[in-house]
Amino acid sequence: TAASFETGSLAGLRLTITAGPTREPLDPVRYISNHSSGKMGFSLAQAAVSAGAHVTLISGPVNLATPDHVTRLDINSAQDMLQAAESDTAQCDIFIACAAVADYRPSAVAEHKIKKGKEEIMELHLIKNPDIVATIASKVNAPFTVGFAAETRDIVSYAQDKLVRKKLDLIIANDVSRTDIGFNSDDNAVTLVTADQVTELPMMRKRQLATSLIDHIAQLYKANR
Ligand code: CTP
Ligand code: CA
């Protein structure tokens, strides 16, 4: 199906979306990562193309096909994701940070495979990764910036805190304590949090949720301009 660049709710707008996990190397054969499937970000990219947007998807390692008409940049680490996001968002109108970025990475990457020692306990030194969405949102002429919040409790108050702390325009909050939705599931239920509104969306297929989220984002973007 051809993209409707002239007619959709995001007609002609440029979107940058991050998706999937990041991988933080420890040595040549090992890494720290998480269970993010990338499905939500890829579905958002597809829905945004259908709404008429030009979409770049900055993706960590996932097992998903690239949606039609989407420009895909593959990265592994959070640092590489930041670099790709900084260069792509210099031109974009809307930035959606859907990736499950590793909060910390090993402070040093061993040049050779780490050998098992005599000790029963091994300690890893980790260093904080840059916050990609906060970095983009704090720039002069920042795009309209959307973050996700993966929480297991006090969903709305943690989301409001992230909205303010990271200077975001919208947070899409997600209850990751529920095993029926989120991370590896095809379904998701989210709460939209802006500076002056809290809106709960019902549980639905990620594909359908993506369309609904893109509609909400388009409306908020236009109201904010
Ligand atoms: N995010 C990011 N860069 C990071 C960490 C998170 O861009 N280094 C983005 C995510 O893509 C998401 C939002 O920030 O859009 C919130 O991620 P989350 O993990 O919920 O927030 P954190 O600030 O990392 O807080 P915590 O994990 O302690 O809840
Ligand atoms: Ca985090």
Report the uncertain regions. none
3D shape: globular
H and E string: EEEHEEHEEEHEHEEEEEH
- The helix fraction, in percent, is 25-40%
CATH architecture: 3-Layer(aba) Sandwich
Bound molecules: cytidine-5'-triphosphate, calcium ion
Catalytic activity: N-[(R)-4-phosphopantothenoyl]-L-cysteine + H(+) = (R)-4'-phosphopantetheine + CO2; (R)-4'-phosphopantothenate + L-cysteine + CTP = N-[(R)-4-phosphopantothenoyl]-L-cysteine + CMP + diphosphate + H(+)
Protein name: Coenzyme A biosynthesis bifunctional protein CoaBC
Cofactor: Mg(2+); FMN
Keywords: Decarboxylase, Flavoprotein, FMN, Ligase, Lyase, Magnesium, Metal-binding, Multifunctional enzyme
List keywords for this structure.
225 residues, 8-stranded mixed beta sheet, two-stranded antiparallel sheet, Rossmann fold, alpha/beta, globular, binds calcium ion, 27% strand, binds cytidine-5'-triphosphate
Describe the protein's architecture and organization.
There is one protein chain. The protein has a single domain (14-107, 124-224), classed as Rossmann fold, CATH 3.40.50.10300. Helix 1 packs across helix 5 (206-224). Helices cover 27% and strands 27% of the residues. The strands form 4 sheets. It has an 8-stranded mixed β-sheet with strand order 5-4-1-6-9-10-12-13, sandwiched between helices. It has a two-stranded antiparallel ribbon with strand order 2-3. The chain is α/β, with parallel strands linked by helices and 225 residues long. Strand 2 and strand 3 form a beta hairpin. The two termini are 30 Å apart. The protein is built from 5 helices and 14 strands. The chain binds cytidine-5'-triphosphate (CTP) and calcium ion. Cytidine-5'-triphosphate is lined by residues 78, 97, 99, 101, 103, 129, 131-133, 147-150, 162. Residues 15-225 are annotated as: Phosphopantothenate--cysteine ligase. Catalyzes two steps in the biosynthesis of coenzyme A. In the first step cysteine is conjugated to 4'-phosphopantothenate to form 4-phosphopantothenoylcysteine, in the latter compound is decarboxylated to form 4'-phosphopantotheine. Its EC number is 4.1.1.36, 6.3.2.5. Residues 10-219 form the DNA/pantothenate metabolism flavoprotein C-terminal domain. Pathway: Cofactor biosynthesis; coenzyme A biosynthesis; CoA from (R)-pantothenate: step 3/5; Cofactor biosynthesis; coenzyme A biosynthesis; CoA from (R)-pantothenate: step 2/5.
